[in-house]
Amino acid sequence: xxxxxxxxxxxxxxxxxxxxxxxxxxxxxxxxxxxxxxxxxxxxxxxxxxxxxxxxxxxxxxxxxxxxxxxxxxxxxxxxxxxxxxxxxxxxxxxxxxxxxxxxxxxxxxxxxxxxxxxxxxxxxxxxxxxxxxxxxxxxxxxxxxxxx
Length: 149
What we know:
There is one protein chain. By secondary structure, the protein is mostly helical. 62% of the residues lie in helices and 3% in strands. A hairpin with an 8-residue loop joins strand 1 and strand 2 (24-25).
């Protein structure tokens, strides 16, 4: 049997840039969400692709006013780095949530109940990170207060 999650392997996969959005490197996701280092490259890439499509749809109306993410960022934050950082945070946090939720569904045994609570807390935290990033991108400021209860 071969272990698929080499914690030292840096994945090369990239979601290419689009007209409006920057490329996303799976290696950057690995650095930010290192607790998911047992995931395969294909698994992360799949979930990142779905997360990115979801976020693009959520930003669709807002982005209609701007040529690209850099233009939105300059308008809302006075520079381009913030918009790019928030975009990556939204995509990566949603990707992490998908992966953690998948881990929860595969780990549902009586013996794993305590671990399930910790994993669920991670999933919830990822959703909060995603929603905060999207709130800032959509509104230029936080309009909601997010708490994990």
